[in-house]
Structures are given as C-alpha cells and as structure tokens.
Amino acid sequence: MIGIKAIASYVPGESIDNLQQGARFDESAEFMRDKIGALRLPRKGEHEDTSDLAVAAVNALILKQPNFNLASVDALVVVTQNGDGAGLPHTSAIVQHKLGLPTTIAAFDISLGCSGYVYGLYVLKGFMQATGLSSGVLVTADPYSKILDPEDRVTSLLFGDAATATWLGTDPYWALDHVSFGTDGAGAEHLRVVDGTLQMNGRQVFNFAALQIAPHLKKLLESAELPLDQVDAFCVHQGSAAIVEAIARRFPEVSSRFVLDIEQTGNTVSSSIPLLLEKRAFEGNWNNLAISGFGVGLSWASALLIRQELC
Amino acid sequence: MLTEEQVKAAMRAAGVSADIDAIGLNDKFSESGLDSLDVFNLLIELQAYTGQQVPDKDVPLLESIAAIINYFKP
User: Fold this and answer.
1) Which chain A residues touch B37 with a CB distance below 8 Å?
2) pLDDT tens across A42-89, in order?
3) In whole angstroms, what is the distance from residue A153 CA to residue A264 CA?
4) Residue B42, preceding peptide bond in cis (omega within 30° of 0)
C-alpha cells in the first residue's frame, strides 16, 4: 500500500512584516491578527526560483529521514502554477537535475493551486500503484510572490512563499483513504492571473470556501462512515484565519479540532496542508485526519488519512 | 421583511465579534467594529435566510442594519 511516509519543508528566511504591511493599507493590528492571521510572510530570495525552493524542501527531507534515499526515488511530482521561467520546461525536470536524481525517474508537474496537495497525493499514489513504483516524492512549491502586486490590498496581505516535500511509499505512516474532488470553472474569474499579476475577488473566494468546503467534508465522512467525533484533527487549507474559522464554525461539535497555524507563513497555497501535517501528524496523537484543499479553479479536494502501524 | 433582531441574530450566527447589542439601527458597520470579513459572513447568513443573493456591486450599500432591512424588503 502506498501512503505518506514523511514530510519536510523549506520556508525562506526572508520575510515581510505583515502588521506593518497591513498598517500601510489602514488595516488594524486586530484585523491582521484575527482575520488575516499572518504576521509574517516568507519571501523567496531574489535569486531563488521555484525549483530552488523545491530542492531545499527535498534536502530537508533527506536530513529528516535517514531511510529516505535519493537514489531510490522513481517518481517526482511538483505541484506548481508558478514554475521556473515561463513554466516550460516543467519544473520537476529542473528539480530532477538539480538534485541529481536518476534519469530513469518519472517526473511531471501538476498545475493546481490550493487544492493541489490533496490531488497530488492521489495522483502520485495512483501512478505509483499503476506502474509498480515504490518511492515517490510529491513537492509543493508555488511562490505567489512572483505574481503579487505589492500595492494590491486584497492579495498582498495573504500569501507567503514555502515549499514542502512528501515522501510516498510502501509501509506508510499515513494511509490515503477516502477522497472526494470538486471543480467549478464558473468561478475561474474570481482568482486568476491577468497580465502577470494575481487578481482575486475576495468576497467570492471567501464565500466559496465558507459554503462549499464544510458540506464537502461532511459528505466525505458520511461516505467513509466515520463519525465526526472520530476525526482527531481537520487540517484544511490555511487561506486566512477568517476562512479556517468560517469552515470550523460549520462544525460546532468539533470546531476546536480545526488546526490554524498561519501566523509565521501566511497562505502558502498548496504547501499549507503539508506544513500543518509536518508539524503535527507524526507525533503519535492522531489516528484519523481530515484534509481539504480549495482555491483557484475553482477547485477543491478533501481526503481522510488513516494512521498505520509505525513503519 | 427582516427585523433588527433577525439581522442581529444573523450577526451572531456569522461570528461577528463586535458588541452586537450596542449597534444601533442606523450605525455604520465600519464605525461599530465590523470589518469587511464580518460583512461577508453576515451576508452569507442573510442570503441563506432570505434566499436572496447580494451581487458584489451592492455590498457597499449594506453599511447598517437599517440599510440591510431596506435592501431585503420583499
């Protein structure tokens, strides 16, 4: 069975003081803390590109997991919509070369935003199972600083740069269980890049997250026949503190189980869920986890992760 | 037709953190401790309650309880 064996990350050291940035837009410290949630927004270095963030995340995985061996990797997937250069060639090929991975590996990108981690887990799992591969790496690296207008109040207060690397293989710590997907291109215009700059209809994206994700998660749990109180934690995409709160409020019985950890990173797009999991999911306290990613597309995906015996 | 109490109940359901009881009928939300995200949450509740959708262009008009009651008149 293919599942998650380990997760590591890279968060750039450079950052923006988001309280100061909020003050520039006349936003109060209370609003920034309680609604945006991010006090610091990491920024990649001037000479770092998306592939460099990805390489740093995989190198962190090497340091963290002595059993993880680059030479044994046979599949590499990079989730990004802001790859190196103009996105051609695919960033995963650049990462393969920079890491010195075998040329025998399969490497491809997945073009998804904040739903990309959940999609990526199941795409890579299915690919590995279909082809008999045993060691895969799923990288998320989508530095929105490349497309942000610093003068745009709607987007510039939200997004931080980060990358993660998730090792998928046999004898996993977390099994990938029930999953459900969704797409509504009618909302594509609410979050898109125009002339190289990210544009967002904040209200429509907020409404989408607040109204779509709670019933999606509930339906997933029903299909898995897993009662709400048996979910130890809900790790949903950290769009903003207000978005996480708006979803959690629709689960009054277990709202305290929704994890919010956005203060030092902001919204890191497809990296936000693995950042949560890296910090909390390998300490032995959780057995059943619900994850949900949602955003650009509009696209969303929710899944259940079930802890396995220690590998 | 919505009442002042119904709008305030929607504020509570929306998780508005301001002192809801202290907000007068004509007080502007921006001066009563509500921010833009509070208003988004409030409109989600009111849309669900009334079945009436509020287009983005109308959101700036809904700056007080009185304005909301007037807007959602049948």
Assistant:
1) 35, 206, 242
2) 999 999 999 999 999 999 999 999 999 999 999 999 999 999 998 899
3) 19
4) no
Q: Name the residue in chain A with its Cα closest to that of B57.
A: A203
Q: Where are the beta strands (DSSP E) in chain A?
A: 3-10, 15-17, 40-42, 75-79, 106-110, 135-141, 163-169, 174-183, 191-194, 197-200, 233-236, 288-295, 299-307
Instruction: Give backbone dihedrals phi and psi of A307, rounded to 5 degrees, phi first.
Output: -70, 140
In B, minimum Cα distance to A27 occurs at: B35
Contact: A210, B59; criterion CB under 8 Å: no
β-bridge pairing A75-79 and A135-141: parallel
Low-confidence winner among A34-38, A95-99, A148-152, B14-18 (lowest mean pLDDT): B14-18
Interface of B with A in 46-65 (CB under 8 A): 56, 59
CB contact under 8 A, B41 and A210: yes
- Give yes or no for B30 touching A (CB within 8 A): no
Model confidence at B74: pLDDT above 90: no
Beta-carbon contacts of A22 under 8 Å, excluding residues fewer than 6 positions away, are A28, A29, A31, A32, A36, A157
- Assigned fold of B4-71: 1.10.1200
Q: List, in sequence order, the alpha helices (H) in A132-164.
A: 153-156
Residue B49 in this model has a pLDDT that exceeds 70 = yes
Instruction: Report the distance separating Cα A139 and Cα A120, nearest Å.
Output: 9
pTM comes to 0.95
Question: ipTM of this predicted complex?
Answer: 0.90
In Å, how far is A128's CA from the nearest CA of chain B? 42
d(C-alpha A200, C-alpha A188), whole Å: 10
Q: What domains, with CATH codes, occur in chain A?
A: 3-172 (3.40.47.10), 175-307 (3.40.47.10)
Measured between beta carbons, the chain A residues lying within 8 angstroms of B36 are 202
With bands split at pLDDT 50, 70 and 90, how would you rate the model's confidence at A310?
low
Q: Where are the domains of chain B?
A: 4-71
Average pLDDT, chain A: 96
